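Pasting two entries for a bug report.
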Amino acid sequence: MEENREDHGLAEGKILSVWMILFVALVLLPSIFRVSLGISHFYVKIVIKMLEWATLQIEEGVKKQKAMALENLISTGIIQRDETPMEKEVVGQCRGCFSLADVMYFSKKGCEAVAEDEVTRRFSSEELLSWNLLSRTNANLHHVSWKLAAVWVTGILIRYCLLLPFRICLSVFSILLLVLATTVVGRFPNGRVKGWLSNQVQMICATLGIRCLSGLVHFHNRENKPQEGGICVANHTSPLDVLILASDRCYSLVGQVHGGLLGVIQKSCMRTSQHVLFERSEMKDRHLVRKKIREHIADKAKLPILIFPEGTCINNTSVMMFKKGSFEYDPRFGDAFWNSTKHSMMTYAFNVLTSWAIVCNVWYLPPMVKEEEEDAVHFADRVKAVIAARAGMSVLPWDGGLKRKKVKESFKEEQQKKYCQIVIENGSVGNGNVC
């Protein structure tokens, strides 16, 4: 009995040693030296082939008319909108005179907004034209054929029974490594050595974090990578944006103070590098943030500042108002968008860890400088337009703060003033013309 126990213990020790060697050789060392062994590329290619096969199965199993109806619903939304501007539609109805029928224009726009407005849907997950074999997507079509159902079940077993445990273990290891390493490096005196060690720790941990998600990131135009003392702005989809950028270059972050798991990571990073954190509700913090940013960029030796001007997470279909890098996630492999008003951080982390992978393209865009006769608003709009054009996204004039707050009275007044100006310019008020 004792000999059997000893043999069993030796066998377990050998298995554990093999796993440790594989972890160090295939995960840890490549992350330290930031090299790719091609495993993620190979895995993503297999997933792509599987999704292409699943799409063919769905097309064969679903009637063509239903497929076209589904595609139209996803691509155009719930309703078909008339994009005619107010000036043309209102003036065209009664040739410039005031009419009670003008009320119908505003009623129609109100009904469209209630059914589906162009802002709220940016804060929900992006719709897919084809099913990606994830049960949480809306096009749940595993019943089309038994072959597709078998692949779907197999995918669940792989993601939840094989990938999820490995990803959780690697995530815990990455967070512990970050906490312990920043605690040690934080005790070093300020200087070049501490700065270099801090950068290495954060980049290694960020690279490990991407490997937790079977991440595949393509960086484009690295010659435009931000330099010390500069400001980098990017569209914002989720906390993964920071993780992805930090794997290629260290930044000083400007962002909201978080609690829980994100709070632990923020505090760890603050031990070794300077970041600007604030409370969204505190007006005093806003003035302090501006002051800290100006002081930071005045020192050309400091890390570039990374800002997400939208102020909230958008679902990677549009770019909202800026208060230059550009992200584009591939939604086929998993949903990178974090709907913070609906899901907690832990729920979001679980959804990401049980996705196929996170595939992302990052473009470093050429630096942009404010022109002499250009104010801050027009400069921000110009930068936003460049980012949206590069990522193929829509440009929306709305403030991302609408995710948590009601529409400002100034927006309503703007529409009222526009209609009033139409009536006045056509002389219907002074002449007493009413249709």
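Entry 2 (this is the one that rendered wrong in the viewer):
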Amino acid sequence: MAELSLYVGVIGNVISVLVFLSPVETFWKIVKRRSTEEYECLPYICTLMGSSLWTYYGIVTPGEYLVSTVNGFGVLAESIYVLIFLCFVPKPRFLKTVALVLALNVIFPLITIVGTRTAFGYAKTRSNSMGFICAALNIIMYGSPLFAIKTVVTTRSVKYMPFWLSFFLFLNGAIWAVYALLLRDVFLLVPNGMGFLLGTIQLLIYAFYRNAKPNIEDEEEALAPSQPLLS
């Protein structure tokens, strides 16, 4: 069983790396156009926050080194995405985006880590409390691409709903849910099971609107400067 969980964990690491690399095409477009347009920053901010705390969880929890290694890579990749986003986000939304990054990627992780180390004396209790927090954040990460659904439904276009991000989140949720079952780790099972479900919903929405005729007027309205990038 331990050997099987190792193999599944390695596969999970590979798929997770693909998840972290899946936005490369999107950010290449942002760099070429020198504008974030209507792309959402929140999924990458949430993923960076979750990866940071999962890395810490993997470090303080015995036998979870595969969790810490892949999420360490995620911290690096997502940090690059967020920095690129900050470089090209329109000025009216720059300060709001910076505030969100500071709150979710700096202040919250620090408070969480220091708080759990201060409040709980036993290592097992600290690990469990961090696992609970990470599980909740993972559900948010998996659902974060759903923020683009309003734009997809309004414009009848999947232009601003990256397919590969949704696809690899779907695969990631499935394989890590299996890994969690093998290790009997409820903190990994619950969020990744939810991730599998949310990923399925996102792919169904993408499939439904992929060949739909775009609503040009609503798309122009969605791209209007008055529309905030971060709601």
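Dev reply: Rendering is fixed now. As a check, the viewer should reflect this: Residues 35 and 88 are 5 Å apart (CA to CA).
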